[in-house]
Amino acid sequence: MLSGQHAFITGGSQGLGYAIARKLGSHGCQVTLLSRNLEKLQRKVEELNEIYPHPQNHDCVAYDLRNPSGLESMVKNYERLKTANILVNCAGMSQSSLLMSTPSQEIQDIINVNLTSPLILSKLFVRNMLRLQNPNIVNISSVLARDCARGTAAYSVSKSGLNKLTQTLAFEMKSKKVRVNAIMPGLMPETDIGKKVTKGTVKSSRLSCEDVAEKVLLLIVDPELTGECVAVE
Questions:
Q1: pTM for the full model?
Q2: Domains of the chain, earliest start first
Q3: GO annotations under biological process (predicted)?
């Protein structure tokens, strides 16, 4: 289904990001994973190469998205990323405190990881995507972009911004055939974010990473969908 295609997935070493990598890899896609922990990344890439071998091999790059100012150099210096026709902005940083109790640096980190880095990566990747088959971007947002919950002000704002990025970039790139969509998952108890969210702030859910990964795949292969922010609960 995705033979000959290449996906770059942030937050790809665990949780939802790795579930998406497995899902795409199982359909013949080459994947490149990004997260902060190189050792964990290398273990996951070895696993992917064993379970879903690819002629070009799956690979990884370690980078801290709390520092978006270095993204342009990272992308420029990593030649293999020029073949990526799929960008999945999945990395996320959660919040579990009232805004008045959240350190200013934590607020900045949340915005950098959840919104600023996807903005910059989208800008950088879309240039190369113009010459590739099936070019598209999938942003992993949250139902908290729509709903209100205590202790999630900065997180919710970042995800609302990600939705607006999705819609506006889709509008800008429609004539260029680059599709941009977002998934808004409910709480996934198996993820780190799902575990850290304060109990009672959002309704309980049985949503799994596999459920969301399947929705991501459907967005990637549907040639008609763009500018959509799809809730998965």
A1: 0.94
A2: 6-232 (3.40.50.720)
A3: fatty acid biosynthetic process
